[in-house]
Amino acid sequence: MAAHTFDVCVRVADQLAEQQPAVAAELLERLDFADDLETIREMARLLYRPAPDPDTSVIPQFDGYFGLENVALNDLLARKLHPHEYLGGGNGIATTTQIIKQADVILGLFLFQSHYSTEIRRANWEFYEPRTEHGSSLSACSYSLIAAQIGKIDWAYDYFMMTASIDLTGDSKQYVGPLYIGGTHPAANGGAWMSAVIGLCGIDCADETIAINPQLPKHWKSVSLPLSVRGTELRLTLSNHRVTVQATTPCSGTITVRSGGHAHVLPQTGILTIALGGEEAKVEPSGNVAALLPTPEAEGV
Fold first, then answer.
1. Superfamily assignment of 205-299 in CATH?
2. φ and ψ at residue 86, rounded to 5 degrees
3. Which residues of 178-206 are buried (b: 16+ CB within 10 A; e: fewer)?
4. Would you give the end-to-end CA distance of the chain in angstroms?
5. Domain extents for the chain?
6. H or E element in which residue 191 lies
7. How far is 204 from 5, CA to CA, in rounded Å?
8. Would you state the pLDDT for residue 92?
9. What is the pLDDT of residues 24-58, one digit of tens each?
10. pLDDT tens across 280-296, in order?
11. What does the alpha-carbon distance between residue 284 and residue 184 come to, in Å, rounded to a whole number?
């Protein structure tokens, strides 16, 4: 994340210098930032970023991590002397083991997924999942997101439900030692939305393009949701067999929808329907998106 911050700084400075050279020069001089920018440029290039192990593709939690005790989570928890015992800190029972509190490497692989192949994401998910204690309310949604990307749909759903129900079940961590930390989890609620929409529904927005690659659990027949893309309000309805997209407000520009291996331009009016079995996309007259779906009686939606 630190390296990414430096990269963004350099990209912004270079883009400003290219598009508005006079403004860039005046700004660097006024801020006395020219030498600092060159230092940041060098730091961005040299800052240490752990690489996947060449044999296992696993990225170490930190240098020396693989030399720690490889113990099963249940065996570690059996060592607790008190049910609310804190596992980490300076001398917690997990500090000398490979058990970790939360999704760290896994969250990084989601945030910077364009840097890592599906194989690397899968290898790290399978390595860290049994070693993660999920002491943070933000951990499960990260595992759900990557699980959906690597085709572990049942796991993605289970971790989604763990996140979505965190304020309903009371199963989240309530104490750190004697300190009560219970309460509501609004950030995890956002993680539940991400797990459902970005993960299981497979929706990814970049510039004026929407990629939709649903990976729905078998017992989910369809999902319908609103989405705002650069000022245009959309209604998306998707299943594992079909995707429909309709602009419910006038399109502010050209929006491309990618799904089923094909790209289609969203019409200004009407409903774009994409069959995921390889059939051609078609535009339906404007109307109710629900009319394009199987009836509840027919498919149990």
1. Maltose phosphorylase, domain 3 (2.60.420.10)
2. -80, 130
3. eeeeeeebeebeebbebbbbbbbbbbeee
4. 41
5. 2-46, 65-198, 205-299
6. helix 186-194
7. 22
8. 93
9. 999 999 999 999 999 999 999 999 988 999 999 99
10. 667 676 544 444 444 34
11. 43
